[in-house]
Amino acid sequence: MLFRSDPLDELSIPDGTTVEEHDLVTDGDVLVGGQSTVEFGVRGRNVIAGERVRFGGHIEAEGDCRLDMWCDVADNVLVGEDAYLGERVHVGGQLKVAGDIDIGDDVDIEEGFEANGWIVIRNPMPTIVFLFVYLGQLLRIGEEEAAENTLSELLDTDREDDPIVIPRGATVGDDAWRVSTPARMGDDCRIHGNIRAADVTVGRDNVIFGSLRSKGDIVVGRGSDVKGNVTTRNGDVAVGPGVKIWGDIAAENVQLHENATVDGTIRASGEIQLHTDAVLDGPDEDAEAMAEMAAEMEGASAPVAGDGVAEDGSEEDASAGAEPDDGESAADESSEDEPNDEPAEGDPAEVESESAVDESSKDRPGGDVPDDSVSEGETDRESDADAATERPETTGDGPDGDHPDPAT
Question: How many alpha carbons fall within 13 Å on the CB side of residue 190?
């Protein structure tokens, strides 16, 4: 893709970008403007570079790789799909392509190349020109739906990972990231080098092994760690919560969060303010996720109605809802099994007992009524004594003349 007449408007570093040893690693695409220098190796999905771009390491592309004319790669180029090399491209190592290769004139590959697909040696058509020619041909033959699908795939903005965008004429390396445009960094990045740009916006939870310097404003988001100075010539500096700056701050006006830490000095020609607000306008996904998790935990720990707490929030009497103990239940069962000494009024059992007492009193001489106060044990002993003193009656001979059995 040619960037000669339309330089990219900002340095964009997406979420999760890291610098590992000497490689710039991202999950998305890498777009490099013309006449730029990238001192790192590059690893990404698709790698596209304009003319006269110099890479100080190797290139690993999971998808396609397109290098415009006069590009220079110091090491190997490994491509997962197709490769497009313009005129006079130099590769210091090997070129290995899993798909097709389209090579222009005077391409220098020092250690040879391998390809599993077609190898075409010609001048590759610029991407924009090829796109217009391809769409025009589809429309000419009446394939409007195919042309629309092609445009939707090319202009799809719903991709999960944003690309790294390096503007025209930039220099990216361990020493510094120098661009003449604004610079914007996402979240959870780990960057080596000083950042020099027109304006600098740093996202959340980043680690920057270097300083920040700009002509305009500088914004540092929540939880970021800047191991250097933060300096602006004509702008303001805004520092979010949990930020730690290991150096100095110099600006016209400084807005510092009360939970931020600055190890150096703060110099401002205007005002220095302490605040408690967020400095970034975008949504904080981590904070929202933590809030949702806290709400779920609070809801799970809340007592349910009927578990000792009434619906209005007041606690019920523990004694009212308590289960009886085993001792109490055993006592209740034993009390239920024992007969009631005081029968209810009009009970048929009471009436029968009274009639039996009357009849027994009539049979006894004097008509004395037995004392109810005599215990059941005494009554049993008296009956046993009477049985012992009573003499057995003599039994006569049976009708057959047999003598009775002495044992009976």
Answer: 7
Q: How many other CB atoms are found less than 10 A from the CB of residue 209?
A: 16
* pTM, to two decimals: 0.65
Indicate the DSSP class of residue 403.
P
DSSP string, 357-376: HHHHHHHSGGGPPPPTTS-H
Alpha-carbon gap, residue 296 to 349, rounded angstroms: 66
Which residues in the chain land under pLDDT 50? Answer: 1-5, 306, 308-331, 333-379, 381, 383, 385, 387-401, 403, 406, 408
CA 75 centroid distance within chain: 39
Question: At 92, phi and psi to the nearest 5?
Answer: -75, -15
Closest CA to 56 of 164, 143, 175, 216: 175
Beta carbons of 254 and 230 less than 8 angstroms apart: no
Rounded Cα distance between 334 and 326, Å, is 12
DSSP state of 404: P
Say if residues 35 and 166 touch (Cβ distance below 8 Å): no
Residues across the chain: 408
Q: Are 176 and 183 in contact (CB under 8 A)?
A: no
334 Cβ contact list (under 8 Å, min separation 6)? none
Residues 6+ apart with CB under 8 A from 85: 67, 71, 91, 95, 101, 102, 103, 104, 107, 124
How far apart (Å, rounded) are the C-alpha atoms in residues 13 and 92? 27
- Model pLDDT, residue 213: 96
Q: How many Å apart are CA 13 and CA 147, to the nearest integer?
A: 31
Phi and psi for 291 in degrees, rounded to 5? -65, -40
Count CB neighbours of 250 within 10 A.
19
Q: Which two tokens stand for residue 276?
A: 């408690």
Q: Mark out the alpha helices in 239-375 (DSSP H runs).
A: 285-301, 318-321, 326-337, 348-363
Quickly tell me which residue has 């990219």 as its tokens.
8
183 contact partners, CB below 8 Å, separation of at least 6:
10, 11, 13, 177, 195, 197, 198, 199, 200, 201, 214
Residue range 186-232, pLDDT digits in tens:
999 999 999 999 999 999 999 999 999 999 999 999 999 999 999 99
